[in-house]
Each structure stands twice: as structure tokens, then as C-alpha cells.
Amino acid sequence: MSAASRRSSDGAKPVPLTREALAKLRLKALRRGIWFRDLKQGERKLLSLTIRVVEQVRSFILARLVSRIVSKLCEAMEGRVFRFMRTEGKSLAEKISKIAEVWGNRAAKSWAKDSGFIQYLAINNLPSFKT
After folding, report:
1. Which terminus of the chain has fewer Cβ atoms in its 10 Å neighbourhood, N or C?
2. Closest C-alpha among 22, 2, 19, 128 to residue 74
3. What's the pLDDT tens digit per position in 56-69?
4. CA distance 30 to 40
5. What's phi and psi for 56, nearest 5 deg?
6. Where are the domains of the chain?
7. What is the pLDDT of residues 72-102, one digit of tens each?
8. Can you list the alpha helix ranges (DSSP code H) found in 2-85?
């Protein structure tokens, strides 16, 4: 993790630790109702003050603190299916892949890394789990 950016929880796109990017993230969190629900008062104050004072985070200590808050916000904003894909779907795909390999399906080895298959399993098994 560098002081310049922090990967979002789904690993998709890094969130740069700049005033503009943090302000956009705060606005998105406010619109979705996550800002007050999922962040503590101290976390909200730190992020708001960082947005006001700093153009780009250069301090390693501040970057570490802010990136934890950014990760928390990104996790809270991700959808239910993607959260389940990240937490349970991958291990489920690996188990099914290994079973299919034992049965003689050589192509099954790639199933564990196939995001479409992982998403399919997550959607089909979502109702049976409370997340």
C-alpha cells in the first residue's frame, strides 16, 4: 500500500488519496447513507479534515489511517452479491472444481478462477445465507 492510493475492497480500482477522490467518496457515502451508519465520529472527522487541509496525502501515518477508512467505506458500499462472491463464493467454486476434477473433468481446474462461475454460485446460494 502506497501513500498515493489504496485499492478498493473488491480490488477493482485504486482510490487515490487526494482531496478530489476522497471528496467524491465522501459524497457517495453520504448519498448511500453509509457515512453516518458505518463510520465512527472520529473517522468522519479525520476524513473531513483531511479533505479540507490536504491536497494529496503524503504522510505514511496519515495514509495508513485514511486508507483504513477508505477500505471500510468501499466494503460498506459494495453490493451484497459481490461481498458474498469475495467471502464465500471463491471457496465454494474451489470445492466444486476439485470435486469435478476427481470425477475426471480436466477443464474443471479453471472453474475456481472463473469470476462468472463464482458469481453464478454466489447468486444461487445467496438466499440460503444471511449476510
Report:
1. C
2. 22
3. 999 999 999 999 99
4. 14
5. -145, 135
6. 5-78, 81-128
7. 998 888 877 787 887 788 888 999 999 999 9
8. 19-32, 34-38, 41-53, 60-77, 80-84
